[in-house]
Each structure stands twice: as C-alpha cells, then as structure tokens.
Amino acid sequence: MYKEQESQVNVFEFQMPWGGHLNPENRWIKLAAIIPWQEIEEQYASKFNTFKGNVAKPARLAFGALFVQAKMDLRDRECAELIAENPYIQYFLGFSEYQDNPPVSASTFVYFRKRIKAAGIARINEILCGVKQPDRDDDDPPAPSTGSGEQDADQTGSGKSNEGTLILDATCAPQDIRYPTDLTLLNDARRILEGFIDQVFRPLQGSMNKPRTDRKEARVAYLAIAKKRKVKYNKMRAAVGKQLRFVRKDLEILEQLLSIPEHGALSEQDQGKLRTIRKLHEQQQTMYEQRIHRVDDRIVSIAQPYIRPIIRGKAGSPVEFGAKISISVKDGLCFVDKIGWDNFSEGSLLQMQCQNYHRRFGCYPSRVLADKAYLSQENRRFCKKHGIALPGSRLGRPPKQTDPEKKRKQLVAAKERNEVEGRFGISKRRYGLELIMCKLQQTSETEIMMQFIAMNADQIIRKQSEADSVASQNHEQVAFNKKIPILAPVRENLCFAF
Hints:
alpha+beta
C-alpha cells in the first residue's frame, strides 16, 4: 500500500522546536529545488499495485535518503543518524517540521535500494540534467546523412547540425570482498558445507551415525599453507588439490543426507550457496586438472557469485573485482550507459552512446573524445558517416613524419578528455565509488547510480552558484558606474585664471 506525500512546505514555514527558520542559501535547500520530485513520485507509486499491507514510506523520503547517503558517502547506520540530527536534511526529505524520532532506520535503506532500481535512477538523472523525455517508446534517431568526420556542421537526419563534445570512458567499481585465491575460496566452501551437513543431519541424530567430514585435518592442511608468507608453486598446488578432495567429499556426504527422508531443510539462501559451491568446485577442478588459471564466469565470491574479475592492466590494480561502468560526459554531467558484471570492451559501445546522445539532445555530437580502445575501424566508419569528429592516431604502423598541427590538435583533445578521468576520480574519492558495500547485484547497481546522480546535482548547484556570482558582480559594477559621473572632455578654448 502506498500513499502519496503531501506537497513540500515553504522553507520559512518549516517548524523547528527551538524557533527560527531555515537558511534559504543552505545547500540542501538548493538541492531540494532542483530534484524532480514529481517524476520520482510517479515512478515509485507505480510499484505499488495493491491496497493491502502497511503504508510504504514516501518516494521523497526513500529517494532522498539514498541521495543523502551517496552525497555524504555514509554507511546505512551513519546516514540514519545524520538524518535524525539535521533539520535541513529533513526538509530535503519532505518533512514540514523537525522530527524528534529518527524518520528512518538503518535496515530501511535495504528496502529503498530494492524498490528504486538503476533504470529508474537513470531516467531521473536525465531529467535532472535537462534532458527532455520522449512521449513515445520507439524514439530511435533517424538515419543521418553521410559526411566527413572533420566537418562539425554536417546535417543529421533530424535537420539539426552536430553540436557539443561527447567524452567516453569506462572504469570499475570494486566490490567489498576479500581478495580471492583458489585456496581461500575452497576453504570457505568446505567450511560452509560442513555447516550444511550439521544442519541437515540434526533431525537424523540418533537414528544413524554422523558421516565423517575430516574437518580437523582439512583445517590443519589449510593453515599450514595460509600462514606462510611465501609458498612455492608445487606446495600451493598440492594444498589446492587437498582442499578440492575435502570439498568433493563433503558434497558427496551432503547429497547422501539430502536423499534420506526427514532430513534437515536448507533455506533458499543456503540452497543458492550450495549451487554456487558446486559450480565453484567444478571450475576449480577444471583449472587444477588442466593447469590453467582462467575459466569463463569464474566465481570469486561465494556470497556474491555475480562478481567477476575485471582486467584493468593498470599499475597497482591490474585486476579489480566489481562492476564495469561505461559513462559519457557532456558539459561536466555524467550519464551511465552500461553497468556490466562481466568484462566487456568499452569500444564496442561508442555507437550506442552516440545514439543515446542523439536521443537526449536531438542531434549527434560534433566530436567524440575517447582513448585508443574506441578507435576501431568500425567506429571510425560510423563517426565519418554521421559527421562526427573522432580525434586520434591512425591505425597501423605510425608514419615517419607527422603533421605538427595535427599532433597539436590530438594533444589538445587528449587534455580535454581528462575531464572524464576527473569525474571518475571525484566519484571514487568523494562519493564512494571506490568501494561498493552492498551485497546484492540490484542494490549495488542502485548505489552506483545514486553516486553519479549526486555528483551531477552538486555540479549543477556549482554552475548555478558561479552564474549567480557573475551576475551579481555585473550588477554591482553597473550600479557603481551609475554612482560615479563621467567627466566631459575639456574644451580647447577654455581658459584658466591663476
């Protein structure tokens, strides 16, 4: 059951127990004015199609709480405490007076993230950034006319010339998991299986003897290797082989117990872990027998089996474990085009991102700034056909002589492309993209999207403040010029008496 929240009161009507009123120049007051609450309310209300049950929290409270958490880079409990202490944040969340009791609890954030999905946040982000939403679903851009990639004013099929610069890049949002190794994963699987065996055997106790699991021997074998700082390859391989045999034995014992009537039941979550462990054992057995260290859809976390290793190849973090994110940047505002848990080539998304640009702004970009991963022949042909400039070095062997002017333009374009790197740096240092703490795939995607929309909102507020500051300075200068009269030029025939 859902009940729509009442309209927001005026900032001067917000009631506080100690008197006074809120400062209209506060950042939360400004943020509350630019967030499209009506669209959020419509999307949130559509998820409730029954009148049964308790009344759900308002959409503004749900979305606003996640926004506050992303903006301040807080955990659930800390954010709930901050909301209870700050009247400006309570006004931002839609309250008409200060609430003495905490409006939300730490556990409520999990339900908010489950109900507000990443796709809906992406639409809210476009509305926040001034993108006009289409009235129909089939809003595919028309086929533009062909043209040269060096011409910035070629006409597209919509009759509007190419405008703006689109900057593309991808990064990884690491998940909060322990660095996975074959030995630790197998040891964790063995310990979980031993707990499942105890749980399933408990109702059968007294009617049969409990099967032997060799848990003490397996624990000693694991610690003998895990406590060493450096382990040779042969010893590590032997330790992995031992843990594989222990896991296989535990799986066989568990299968036998599950086939006996009146055995203990496993919860749905435990059954999901059991399926993950079976797949993990299969993958590890394959790599052990074939002496390889790579397999498709490799599991690196039993609790979060959707996480995949993302090969980055950068100093300090050659491999990261989390979601790979491809974004496009225009005028400092970020649009998330894809969140993928499997490693993908970001260069293959250039055409889709240009189409998204056309859908958002009604024309194709005049330039696309990207790194070498995007400079494929197919992307070059696409950009040439649509009149989009794609600066970058040509494919193949580098020429013996380079044009200095062309080299200078490429250097300028590379400097401009650094804006997207700055967006990634800000999102990771300031908004928490460096470490995602959620445990579910859906809630992790929601948290990632909230971080980008919080960063865009701060960017919009910053631009508005700069524009207001410039306008105020111009107004003061005009007023100052009016107060000082301008002296007329002195005539040549004017005489002075001394």
